[in-house]
Amino acid sequence: MKIAVLGGTGHIGIGLSLRLAIAGYEVIVGSRKGEKARQKAEEYTSMLESRGLNGVISGADNAKASELSDVAILAIPYSHVYKAAESLKEDLAGKIVITPVVPMEKKSRLFIYAPPPEGSAAEKIASILKDSRVVSAFQTVPAERFANLDERFEWDVPVCSDDDEAKRIVLEIVNSIDGLRGLDAGPLAASRLVEGLTPLLINISIRNKVKDLSVKFV
């Protein structure tokens, strides 16, 4: 299976690219500039090889990565993700599209959830990508720790979608990553509950001086 990590050169995209490649998927790192994506793909491959790990990672501009993929992950900052989705909707038609996007803002010393009128970033993205199979996941995965291959963790990843088959496939993808457990969290509308966990985790992290929190349901 080919998985495009759109915006795979930064933030959550780094960890996703590395760990999906380790799990055996063919990863296509996407970026606005194809040359940057190819450079990062080479860098990620070298990181794996230095640890004696194998992985198939290539790079392309976001449109080409979308076109070549079976599944695409929108690892793009919230401020740019809707515009990116609009520009890529033809390339993503018929494909499973995973969104880890969280709309939030900072007021004073508090991060708060700031969803669009549709109710969640996932629902807004689905309204743009009408011909894609939108699934939300990975919102509560801390990017820095996830990208550190020395880290060991046990985190749960809620997965939401109105497409049961697409959700099943994404649950399999999540569960293929060592240390993650995918959980069916319901329809896409439930994404607003999951997205809202991220600012909560950040606030707890700041106030209690603990880094890179995630979630585990027990």
In a nutshell, what does this entry contain?
40% of the residues lie in helices and 22% in strands. The protein is built from nine helices and ten strands.
From the alpha carbons, calculate the radius of gyration and give it in angstroms. Answer: 16 Å
Poorly predicted ranges: none
Q: What does the overall shape look like?
A: globular
Number of domains: 1
Strand order of the largest sheet: 3-2-1-4-5-8-9-10
CATH architecture: 3-Layer(aba) Sandwich
The CATH homologous superfamily name equals NAD(P)-binding Rossmann-like Domain
- What is the share of helical residues? 40-55%
Q: For the report, how would you describe the main beta sheet? A: 8 strands, mixed
Strand content: 15-25%
Mean pLDDT: 97
Assembly of the depicted chains: single chain
Count of DSSP H/I helices: 9
Within the CATH hierarchy, at the fold level, what is the topology?
A: Rossmann fold
Let me know the number of strands: 10
Protein structure class: alpha/beta
Report how far the terminal alpha carbons are from each other. 32 Å
| Highest CATH level, the class | Alpha Beta
Order of helical and strand elements? EHEHEHEHEEEHEHEHEHH
Keywords: Oxidoreductase
GO molecular function: coenzyme F420 binding; cupric reductase (NADH) activity; ferric-chelate reductase (NADPH) activity; NADP binding; oxidoreductase activity, acting on NAD(P)H
Domain Pyrroline-5-carboxylate reductase catalytic N-terminal: 2-102
Protein name: NADPH-dependent F420 reductase
